[in-house]
RNA sequence: GGCCCGAUAGCUCAAUGGCAGAGCAGCUGACUCUUAAUCAGCGGGUUCCAGGUUCAAAUCCUGGUCGGGUCACCA
């Protein structure tokens, strides 16, 4: 593209041509290394221990390579920094050693890849350095790297051209290495507990299993509307029904909603389902899993997050939802759940019962200066209170337990109080990181709950209610064991461990407004 | 979608209505142990776009594009 960068671009294109004209291939297919940069550095340090440090000490020759990140030329000698995926190593290039090869130097630029071979030594200033006997250009870069000292600051460019962000910052590279460690750690943890990893459809006929707006797409040959999944939940339960007692899936889910610092339209979840477990069992599993991941990804159980230090050491406090709301707002949600329950038992239809209870709670919320928003069902209202008044106060890892049934159409009621379900959510740094329940496995009750969601959907004209999935109900009618289910937000975990408040900092290529 | 803020050299940033600048990167030259190498010199701009106010606009006004923050919506 013709922009003002063209001048620098043209200079590099010319150098590329000059190399070719001199019979040098600027893009050779291979360069056999003997060591990564890090391995070479370690090798020399070990060698020094063995032989003793002297200025003239030279190791056996090594062949190393990397991107040129610094060039300090001094006429007939030059110090260049080469960065590979493991470390940076300095190369010392001398005209009297390299001879004609030294004339390649004017055609090299920051950003090019270079291979060097030669013995290692330690410079007077103490840096382990390869004394090049041979240099090979491995790849000519045609555009300059970001500014070497300040790096890349422009937020938009950092996200749109993440490769430049990575190139310029070891911290960013390490952040995504850490994200990989989290994924490995969690996989390992689940595998070790006897779970099997499965893959379920991303293109689905009904976007069910959560309350969210889906992306819509179309299969041409079938001439059929399909959706991108908003959760993996229902398919995973069907695996459990089929006899795969312990399954998990790590995968991307897609929600067609607002984009902000906490939400990317595609994000990664780990969902697991375990037959014969309940939400207490899952709670213990989550503590253990997240603290193990913290240990492996950050090297400890305590992680700095802004001004706070999050301590993931189990056990995490359990906080009763009703009590937590009462403590923070003075609102007791129980009477409203009671109103709803009584109204339903008296045979009022869902709309009538909902309106009765929701109106009361919304009024109470206004008294407490909480905006109830519009078109809100009792479930959404309670969710709103939690989001506004409870969630932000949960800095240290905490479980919020026992949710109203209306918020959780897939969770099993408590035996001692059918207005509540056996559900918990895990929070840290004021963010939700996990959601779990003892799964509802009564197909008749499940159908009723779905139907209620459908009615709420009509009543509030809102897309964000769970949908009735016949294939799932049919599966459940074949018998589903008591099961403990879990969903964990991998991006949120990565944010916590990275100490970052923005999800964009832990997603390599986040969605931007375009 | 509403509100607030921002966009200046390839990159990082100055210039508060009066000649658009610095550092890095680039180019030329010097330099065989440098560490953001140093030294001397040179080039580099549709100041996001379109319009307006003004003798004069990077700067003020209007609209737009893109981004950030925030609210709404939403895990």
Question: Would you kindly provide a written description of the structure presented here, covering whatever features stand out?
Answer:
This protein has 514 residues and is of the alpha+beta class. Among the domains are: 4-139, Nucleic acid-binding proteins (OB fold (Dihydrolipoamide Acetyltransferase, E2P), Beta Barrel); 150-317 and 424-441 and 479-514, Bira Bifunctional Protein, Domain 2 (BirA Bifunctional Protein, domain 2, 2-Layer Sandwich). Helix content is 36%, strand content 24%. The chain is built from 15 helices and 19 strands. Strands 7-11-12-19-18-17-16-15 form an 8-stranded mixed sheet, sandwiched between helices. Strands 1-2-3-5-4 form a 5-stranded mixed beta barrel. The protein has a 3-stranded antiparallel sheet with strand order 8-10-9, with no helix packed on it. A hairpin with a 4-residue loop joins β2 and β3. The two termini are 20 Å apart. It binds one RNA strand of 75 nucleotides through α1, β1, β2, β3 and α4.
